[in-house]
Known about the structure:
43% strand; mainly beta; 10-stranded mixed sheet
Amino acid sequence: MERDIDALKDRVASFETQVQQLNDEMNIIRVLLDGNKTITDYSIDGDTYTLTLSNGETLTLTPGVVGGNYPSIEIGENGNWFIGDEDTGKRAKAENGNDAEITPQFKIEANPADGDKKYWYVSYDEGKNWSVLENGCAEGTNTSENPIESAVVEGDNFKVVLSDGSEHFIPIVQGLECAINIPEGVTDGLWSVAGGGQSSFKVKVKLAEGDLVRVNAPADWNAKVSKYQVGDTEVSVTVTPPSTPSECIIVVEVTHGVNTATDQIKARTTSDSYWAEYQAGLDIKIGDVVINKYNNPEGKLLQDGSAILISGVYFIAQEATVEWTSGAGDLIIISENKNNYSSLNMNSTVQLDGSGSILLSGLKLRCAVGATSFKVVSGSTKRLTLNHCDIEMQKDKVFAEFDNTENAANLDEIVMESCRVSVPVPTVSTSVINLFSCKGKYDKVLIHNNIFYCREENSSVLYCFLNNTASINNIDIENNTIINLLSNHGSNSGYVRLPINQATVMKNNLIWYDTNCYGEKGQTTTVTLVSSISEGAAFGPADFESNKVFTAVDGKEQLTWKIIRTPKGFTGTNSITPSTESPFVDGTLVDTEGKYTLKPEYQGIGAIIE
Length: 610
């Protein structure tokens, strides 16, 4: 056993070394290709170089081959990264003065699709999302060349030879620095500034005799560098952007003799109008979907009383109400104003029978009495995304129903983020109201940062997020607030009413109730988050951590809360002890409107919707 443990430790250490080296190599290649950094200092420890760049970044590189199986990595003739012999569509080389779009990041993890063998995974968004590389098994012997063949200090340059034999040089210039100190207002690498007013940021420098500092930006951004002199270690850059929606890259340069070091920041004027940003050609990001007039050129602004009949990209004017009377393939509907809902009336059950995707954002969704909001009857819809919507469910109706017809209706993905969902009391109090009645096959369901609440005073409702008779591969339910909605009772009890598998996560949800709809005082009922575990699956507490239950119901009407009704395969404590302490700041909870302010000690659980 000791030998086995030692062998496993050696294997893990080897994987970690491979990942670290490959990520360091990607960073070096990025610097080589951008061509706008110099090395201000370096050190050598054996075969390992530690490089300090002119923008303050530190990189470590150990030339040579590490054992194991590397993914193939190349830069195509079109300047894109090719990983696993496939064009990623991501630019590797600098273009028009702009840095490369991304630097790929790699990791090694178990791949459930291949018996949990270790595989290479790649991320193109700084580790937010990862995808497994096909034919990317990390176990076994090395079958691909390292991206970097060798590296050495040669005179006043750091010389790097790539696997294709090409030689690249990074100048070594002691003391040449140009590093932008990230200002306030930067999110996901984008600096948001008020249009028409002045904003500024600091740049770290180390100015010597003859050094020049310049700033490059579009003329309408009016960027200027503060006065500077020899010995300065910091300069200021002030920008006055246009008052209309605009976006640009601001590049700061420090030149010392023949060498120039640069750093840059992407800036964008703030706006409360998605429509204005769309017209200006800016990217609008809803979740992980990017919309702009170049990829979606037929966008329309709809006024009050308009109707949506066909696929397309639509913006609904502020305070306008638009009718939606038929299903569609690809359809994007967005509120024109970022801070106010626009209304979308669904006058009948919308049949999603196309092969496209539906994305709704910033909308008040109202469905005709007696109608289901969405229904898939056949075929496959790629995705249904609901973002920052105010959803009013109808009495005795599910929100979305996907029939298991002869052709088995399917969805690749259901995403609900930052929505407010109000639920009425059903005609029969023991009826269970379903959010998604999913009878088809689904790859992923993600429910994040939503507020679900019973909108009728002194009432609670039996409620179920997922009621499924087929299969969902991945379920992720996190940071939701659930007010006066109690999970479905009976043999299949749970907010998730299906056997869950190992790709299920349900964390940091907040449940509060002051009414027990289960019946008379003294009735003892067990309430659970999920119903049961799929055969062979195994779970630990980390998959269901920090779900909190709070109640104002007295002890005689109290419910017994558990995580899993049938906990076979679950390790850890299965029970949840309700707290009688309110998680809300006194006087802020309006339960019939789903509004509240969380106490500081409970931040991090439940939903926060601005």
